[in-house]
Design a protein that fits this description.
- With 202 residues, this protein is of the alpha+beta class.
- It has helices at 2-24, 46-63, 76-91, 103-119, 163-168, and strands spanning 146-149, 171-174, 177-181, 194-198.
- A four-stranded antiparallel β-sheet has the order 1-2-3-4, covered by helices on one side.
- The longest helix is centred in the N-terminal third of the chain and has 23 residues, at 2-24.
- Residues 159-202 have low confidence and may be disordered.
Length: 202
């Protein structure tokens, strides 16, 4: 329905701007559609960019459902997970020259959101099971610890079935880290590179 689509759109924009501001600091904020070519953009500050991330992920949290209608769909927990990260980034000491007014409240909100997400998921009995990859969309993707697992298929009939599959190709996000498997139509299972970046949210 419309609310779910709105939530997914806010999530995708907030997620991507969070990745950008984490790596580059402030970036140009493009929030409206273009009707003509644009060549010049002004770079926003890290503070402005993070505020946009937080606003988008809060809207995503509002619109997204609590439970996914199918595996790979975004939920409130996915939005809350990244919203907690955004609050933690804004409260980080690397932003101490401007975050004094928001730091204490951001830390409280990050902790609240992290506890909320953790309360909805059970950790895998065996941590190694998270990495026991056997096939796309395999059993390890169904573990309760997994917050969001975008589905991948090499079937031509399902190439454009999911926006997140196209944008992220194949993404697994667990309670403690973000795991990205980058694949394309010519990549065999044995060639799947795994990039794992640890992001503690508590």
């Amino acid at each position: 329905n419309k609310n779910t689509y709105m939530g997914e759109a806010y999530f995708l924009r907030g997620f991507n701007y969070l990745k950008l501001v984490s790596q580059y600091g402030g970036v140009p904020l493009k929030l409206t559609p273009s009707e003509t070519p644009e060549r010049e953009f002004s770079r926003a500050t890290a503070e402005e960019t993070l505020q946009q991330v937080i606003d988008d992920l809060k809207d995503a949290y509002t619109y997204l459902p609590e439970t996914a209608s199918m595996t790979g769909k975004m939920t409130k927990d996915a939005a809350a997970h990244f919203l907690a990260k955004a609050y933690l980034l804004r409260a980080s000491e690397i932003n101490d020259d401007w975050n004094g007014a928001t730091k204490e409240e951001d830390l409280k909100e990050a902790l609240r959101l992290a506890r909320e997400v953790i309360s909805h998921h059970n950790l895998a009995p065996n941590y190694a099971d998270l990495w026991n990859y056997t096939e796309p969309n395999g059993a390890n993707e169904q573990l309760d610890e997994i917050i969001l697992a975008a589905q991948f298929s090499s079937d031509k009939a399902t190439e454009v079935i999911s926006v997140i599959s196209i944008m992220f190709l194949y993404t697994r996000i667990c309670l403690k880290c973000s795991v990205i498997l980058r694949v394309n139509a010519n990549t065999s299972v044995s060639e799947l590179p795994i990039i794992c970046t640890m992001y503690m949210i508590w």
